[in-house]
Automatic annotation (TrEMBL):
<dbReference type="Pfam" id="PF03637">
    <property type="entry name" value="Mob1_phocein"/>
</dbReference>
<protein>
    <submittedName>
        <fullName>MOB kinase activator-like 1A isoform X2</fullName>
    </submittedName>
</protein>
<feature type="region of interest" description="Disordered">
    <location>
        <begin position="1"/>
        <end position="29"/>
    </location>
</feature>
<dbReference type="InterPro" id="IPR005301">
    <property type="entry name" value="MOB_kinase_act_fam"/>
</dbReference>
<dbReference type="InterPro" id="IPR036703">
    <property type="entry name" value="MOB_kinase_act_sf"/>
</dbReference>
Length: 199
C-alpha cells in the first residue's frame, strides 16, 4: 500500500462506464449560443438574450455540469471514480465537475505539502515523489480524456480547439518524455496520443 493508497486502487477508479442518462436543458438557449458564436461577435454571444432567465442563461453556458455529465467518463468504454486514499478511501462514482473539483483540491494539497514538494533549496524529495507526480498526471489526463470525449464539439463550436490541442500536445510530450503515465491509462485517447508522439 502506498502513502496515498493508490497502488492497487487504480483498477477500482478506472472502470468501464455504465449507461448514463442524457438530456438537453435549455435547448433554445443553446441554439442562441451556437448562432451567435459563429457570427464572430463574442460580445453579442455572451449577452443575456431578451426575455431569458438570468440563472438559466448562466446554467446553459456551463457545459460540463452534474446533470449532463453525471459520471466522470471518457466515452462509452471508460469511467473514472474518485478516491484519494485519505478522506475517500473507497472509490466513489461522482459527476465530472465533482471529480475535477476533488482533483484540483487534491493536487493543491500535494503541492502545498512540503514533505512531497520541498520549498527549500537542497531539501530532499521523498522516495515516492515520482509516484505522486505520476498520479497527478494520470488524473489530469483523465480530465483531458473527458473533455475530448464529452465536450470536443462544444470546444470546436467556440473555436477553441487549437488552444486545447496545443495544451494537450505539450502535456502528452512532457508525460511521454518522462514516462509519467502508464500506457494503459492512455487508452481513451490512444489514437490522438500516438499521432502526437509519432510526429
Amino acid at each position: 500500500m502506498s502513502l496515498f493508497g493508490l497502488g492497487s486502487r487504480n483498477q477500482k477508479t478506472f472502470r468501464p462506464k455504465k449507461s448514463a442518462p442524457s438530456g438537453s436543458k435549455g435547448a433554445q438557449l443553446q441554439k442562441h449560443i451556437d448562432a451567435t458564436l459563429g457570427s464572430g461577435n463574442l460580445r453579442e454571444a455572451v449577452k443575456l438574450p431578451p426575455g431569458e432567465d438570468f440563472n438559466e442563461w448562466l446554467a446553459v453556458n456551463k457545459f460540463c455540469t452534474a446533470s449532463n455529465c453525471p459520471t466522470m467518463s471518457a466515452g462509452p468504454k471508460y469511467e473514472y471514480r474518485w478516491a484519494d486514499g485519505v478522506t475517500i478511501k473507497k472509490p466513489i462514482e461522482v459527476s465530472a465537475p465533482k471529480y475535477v473539483e476533488y482533483l484540483m483540491d487534491w493536487i493543491e494539497s500535494q503541492l502545498d505539502d512540503e514533505t512531497i514538494f520541498p520549498q527549500k533549496l537542497g531539501a530532499p524529495f521523498p522516495p515516492n515523489f515520482k509516484k505522486v507526480v505520476k498520479t497527478i498526471f494520470k488524473r489530469l489526463f483523465r480530465v483531458y480524456a473527458h473533455i475530448y470525449h464529452s465536450h470536443f464539439q462544444k470546444i470546436v463550436s467556440l473555436k477553441e480547439e487549437a488552444h486545447l490541442n496545443t495544451c494537450f500536445k505539450h502535456f502528452v510530450l512532457f508525460t511521454w518524455e518522462f514516462r509519467l503515465i502508464d500506457k494503459a491509462e492512455l487508452a481513451p485517447l490512444q489514437d490522438l496520443v500516438d499521432s502526437i508522439i509519432q510526429f
